[in-house]
Amino acid sequence: MKRAIEDVCDESQGVIAGDNKMIKIEDIPEDYRDRHVPAFSDAMDFILKKDNSLVHVFLKADFELFKKFDKGYGEPTDDAKLQNAFSKLGGAIVGQQISNSAARSIRIKFMALFDGMFPMYKELKEYMTIPDNVKKMRESGLSQRKVTYMESLAIYFSDNEERLKKMYYHTNDRKDNNDDEIMNDLVAGVKGIGPWTAKMFLVSGLRRINVFAPEDVGVARGFSRYISDKPELLKELMDGRESVKKSKIKHKKFNWKVYDVDIMERCADRFAPYRTVFMFLLWRLSGTGKLDVTIDVENQFVNTL
Q1: How many CB atoms neighbour CB 295 within 10 A?
Q2: How far is CA 184 from CA 73, 191, 199, 275, in A?
Q3: Which residues make beta-bridge pairs with 67?
Q4: Mean pLDDT of 150-154
Q5: Which letter, b or e, does each residue of 49-75 get, where b requires 16 or more Cβ atoms within 10 Å of its Cβ?
Q6: pLDDT by residue (tens digit) across 66-100?
Q7: CA-CA 20 to 30 A from 103: which of 33, 45, 68, 236?
Q8: Cβ pair 57, 284 in contact under 8 A
Q9: Bond into 76 cis (ω within 30)
Q10: Cβ distance 278 to 271 under 8 Å?
Q11: pTM for the complete prediction?
């Protein structure tokens, strides 16, 4: 008889509490696998064969990013996917360096200028040629700098439409082999888009499965907690390093340690080509409160950026 997901999750809580009892890969419920895309199931098996202690982090809740699409709506067109990509990056610009609640408020006011919808990139490019419209964008809560960034983004998508479709959705072998190309193109082509935002877009906008961002505070905090009870692994990572890449993350709390970037990257490479999934596990481990709250934030990230 197949085990219920609730039964396995209840059992897995013993791992959090310090129980050494582990759940085997073959005991993971089929309904949990069925709710996710096949690539996620492959990633889960690959990661758990390397480190089965992460099983409770997997089973605590579904991963919104890797859930199967509703087939009733059909496969979106390249035009629809590119517009979604533009909306993701535009939302990221709106939310830069402000709280989630403030970003949500500004986004709603900005979208109100376009009948409650995020504008099409060509529509926004044309809209911003009129000075009064730019003023309205400022009045919605966008800073002058972010207005400039939004214009740069709209021009980038409008002027490179076909090239972006090919680069995003029609790589030669569909194995995410052009992640660096996409990231570098975004950083060079759009004002206000840096490496972190580009990586997050690869994850949530293009569903790329081998992305890792050691510069992210949540990833760094999660890694600190992940490695804290693995002295042998840490020694292996330290002994094998070829060069030192210091982290630029600064924090005032002393309940977790910021590890060097090269150490985090070497650890993540153990889980390639599924580093995105490992990164999501670290985010879950990074939560300062209840895991349920961390998962809520995770889902907000997937649905906004």
Answers
A1: 18
A2: 33, 12, 10, 19
A3: 36
A4: 99
A5: eeeeebbbbbbbbbbbbbeeeeeeeee
A6: 999 776 667 789 999 999 999 999 999 999 999 98
A7: 68
A8: yes
A9: no
A10: yes
A11: 0.85
d(CA 294, CA 31) in angstroms, rounded, equals 23
- Virtual torsion, Cα 86, 207, 287, 23, nearest 10 deg: 170
Q: What is the pLDDT of residues 168-225, one digit of tens each?
A: 998 655 455 799 999 999 999 999 999 999 999 999 999 999 999 999 999 999 999 9
Residue type, 290: K
Q: Are 64 and 299 in contact (CB under 8 A)?
A: yes
Residue 19 CA to residue 290 CA, distance in Å, equals 19
**Which residue segments constitute the domains of the chain, with CATH numbers given?**
5-66 (no CATH), 78-204 (1.10.340.30), 217-294 (no CATH)
pLDDT confidence bin for 255, thresholds 50/70/90? confident
> Per-residue confidence at 290, pLDDT binned at 50, 70, 90?
low
Task: Record the tokens describing residue 211, joined without a space.
Answer: 């992305």
In this model, does residue 7 exceed pLDDT 80? Answer: no
Q: What is the pLDDT of residues 222-232, one digit of tens each?
A: 999 999 999 99
Catalytic center residues = 216
Checking if the pLDDT of 24 tops 90, the result is: no
Q: What number of residues does the chain have?
A: 305
How would you write the chain as a 3-class SS string?
CCCCHHHHHHHHHHHHCCCCCCCCHHHCCHHHHHCECHHHHHHHHHHHHHCHHHHHHHHCCCCHHHECCCHHHCCCCHHHHHHHHHHHHHHHHHCCCCCHHHHHHHHHHHHHCCCCCCCCHHHHHHHCCCHHHHHHHHHCCCCHHHHHHHHHHHHHHHHCHHHHHHHHHCCCCCCCCCHHHHHHHHHHHCCCCCHHHHHHHHHHCCCCCCCCCCCCHHHHHHHHHHHCCCHHHHHHHHHCCCCCCCCCCCCCCCCCCCCCHHHHHHHHHCCCCCHHHHHHHHHHHHCCCCHHHHHHHHHHHHHHC
